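Appendix B. Worked example

We walk through a single record from start to finish. Start with the input: the chain for Ribose 5-phosphate isomerase B, Fusobacterium animalis ATCC 51191, length 149.
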Amino acid sequence: MKIALGADHGGYELKEKIKQYLSMRKEIELIDFGTNSTESVDYPKYGHLVAKSIIDKEVDYGILVCGTGIGISIAANKIKGIRAANCTNTTMARLSRQHNDANILALGARIVGDVLALDIVDEFLSASFEGGRHQKRVDQIEIEECNLF
Ligand code: RB5
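Next comes the structure step. The output line below is what the pipeline stores for this chain.
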């Protein structure tokens, strides 16, 4: 399994912990798109880089970290085909894969503790999309125009 990592300065330290944690798993290959320090940067770039690596099929999943997980997930979700889920617990992480076929896990380093964050990562990576009734809903996310109004 190939995983892209990305973070802004607020998420840098947690990204490094996730990188260290996942690098112990032989079946996982990591690509780190930065940032590489706590120096202030703008999160959209990292959200977009990780999103692009998924759309280009360079990796299977992405993990993004910023202070809250909000900005970087909003940025990633602007890319067609990306379903970035900002998760604060393991249930959200599992259901984001099972029901929403999330291809990016977003984390808020200022919101979740390190131990919980690693549990969330484990849960996200071990859960599978259930398809079935969820497939048509996921397909509906990609509408070009909203026809409700
Ligand atoms: C950076 O200070 C912070 O705004 C960013 O990491 C993130 O929380 C934005 O959503």
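Two observations about the output. The chain has a mean pLDDT of 96. The longest strand covers residues 2-7.
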